[in-house]
Amino acid sequence: MRLNPNCIRLEQNYLFSEIALRVRNFQAAHPEREILSLGINDVTRPLAPAVCDAMAEASREMQRAETFHGYGAAEGELFLREAIAGYYKQHGVSVDAEDIFIGDGAKSDLSNLCDLFTPDCTVLLPDPVYPVFYDTSVMAGRKILFSRGSRENGFLPMPDDTVRADLIYLCSPNNPTGAVYSRAQLRRWVEFAHETGACIIFDAAYEAYIRSASLPRSIFEIAGAETCAIEIGSFSKMAGFTGVRCSWMIVPRALTESGHSLQKLWRRRQSTKYNGTSYVVQRGAAAVFTPAGQRQVRGDVTYYMENAGLIRNALRRGGVFSTGGEHAPYVWMQCPGGARSWDCFDSLLSRYGIVSAPGAGFGAGGEGWIRFSSFGSLETTKKAAEKLADIEWDSFAVFAGGHI
Ligand code: PLP
């Protein structure tokens, strides 16, 4: 047999498996200690009643021959694509239902999208980076370049005129830094994509967390993006679908390369490799956009953002530098005294039982930073925030390696 060398090049542990392993080891050694998780990406609020009711009704439809649904359309059901187009319209963005494709999660979409582009293309990724951008690019055999986020540029890297790439990945609101691009900044990225002939892959998985109308929720708020960008959205963080799985991708009709329509190619790819997201799930997703669904899922987003506020305030009280958490469910903290991310992670875990996500797991640009997630319960977040607020960060000596 011959293995794919690109898979062998992947780092052995996915970041979140390594975090889980360290937490398990700590718990095994200290079963009496309480663990307060501000670490992982997963949500904790249950599904909205409107979503569950719609899925229950859809499963009853499946029980009767007259209303049973077999294979669905590879691009997704029209009722859901129209509901998504309506959601964009509410935010002032005109997207045609024809341009929308339903998927089974943004993670799968990001990975599947690699099929559209030549294996030897060059990708430009932000650093720090959502690990899936990096890993899927490694597995696809891409040449990878980075645009560096830093405290100085607010973790919002801008185009470098000397750099050329075929694909540009942008994530706003950003995982892990919580940073959000302004319209002017996205305009510059769109201009740059046009100047260089690149395609932007815009990950909008956290758009529902933006709380200001002056910040863009979609790349398609920028004129000219329809000829240089693809956008990916997800129901995971906006409506708690992490275990249900549903996402959407916008591939505009106007997006072409050398006379080929990317939308046509994507439709062709999906019709061979995808049989559509489950009908029951799509009914649940459509219910997110009903008035009751919107009220309920927005309530959950508010709940998480209040958690983010507790974390931000706790860190501010202690005088440690942090950013994010304003239009995103992640707070991004600079480790005190120039400490390394994993050492800071270990110290917070062993002294306070607080689980974070080490910035170094998101790329070299994340070294020296820690991410706190607001997806925990209010109770856990409150307890953790009280502990964080009491930390004397100036004298917070970080263990260097292997103290757990
Ligand atoms: N994109 C970003 C930036 C994410 O942080 C996540 C999940 O954490 C995803 C995509 C994946 O979303 P999904 O659950 O739809 O696969």
Secondary-structure blueprint:
Elements: H1 5-8, H2 15-29, E1 36-37, H3 49-63, H4 78-90, E2 100-103, H5 106-112, E3 122-127, H6 131-139, E4 143-148, E5 167-171, H7 183-196, E6 199-203, E7 229-234, H8 236-239, E8 247-250, E9 256-257, E10 260-261, H9 262-273, H10 279-287, H11 291-318, E11 322-324, E12 330-334, H12 341-352, E13 354-355, E14 357-358, E15 369-373, H13 378-390
Parallel strand pairs: 1-13, 3-4, 3-5, 5-6, 6-7
Antiparallel strand pairs: 2-8, 7-8, 9-10, 11-12, 12-15, 14-15
Helix pairs in contact: 3-10, 4-10, 11-13
Pyridoxal-5'-phosphate binds at residues 41, 105-107, 130, 171, 175, 203, 205, 234, 236, 242, 247.
Terminal Cα span: 41 Å
What is the CATH topology of the largest domain? Aspartate Aminotransferase, domain 2
Average residue-wise pLDDT: 96
Number of strands: 15
Radius of gyration: 21 Å
In N-to-C order, the SSE pattern is HHEHHEHEHEEHEEHEEEHHHEEHEEEH
CATH architecture of the largest domain: 3-Layer(aba) Sandwich
Widest sheet, order of strands: 2-8-7-6-5-3-4
- Helix coverage percent: 25-40%
What descriptive keywords fit this protein?
binds pyridoxal-5'-phosphate, 4-stranded antiparallel beta sheet, Aspartate Aminotransferase, domain 2, alpha/beta, 13 helices, single chain, Aspartate Aminotransferase, domain 1, 15 strands
Structural commentary:
This protein is of the alpha/beta class and 404 residues long. It folds into two domains: 5-47 and 292-387, Alpha-Beta Complex (Aspartate Aminotransferase, domain 1), CATH 3.90.1150; 49-290, 3-Layer(aba) Sandwich (Aspartate Aminotransferase, domain 2), CATH 3.40.640. It has 13 helices and 15 strands. The chain has helices at 5-8, 15-29, 49-63, 78-90, 106-112, 131-139, 183-196, 236-239, 262-273, 279-287, 291-318, 341-352, 378-390, and strands at 36-37, 100-103, 122-127, 143-148, 167-171, 199-203, 229-234, 247-250, 256-257, 260-261, 322-324, 330-334, 354-355, 357-358, 369-373. The strands form four sheets. Strands 2-8-7-6-5-3-4 form a seven-stranded mixed β-sheet, sandwiched between helices. A four-stranded antiparallel β-sheet has the order 11-12-15-14. Helix 11 (291-318) packs parallel to helix 13 (378-390). The longest helix has 28 residues, at 291-318. The mean pLDDT is 96. Residues 41, 105-107, 130, 171, 175, 203, 205, 234, 236, 242, 247 line the site of pyridoxal-5'-phosphate (PLP).
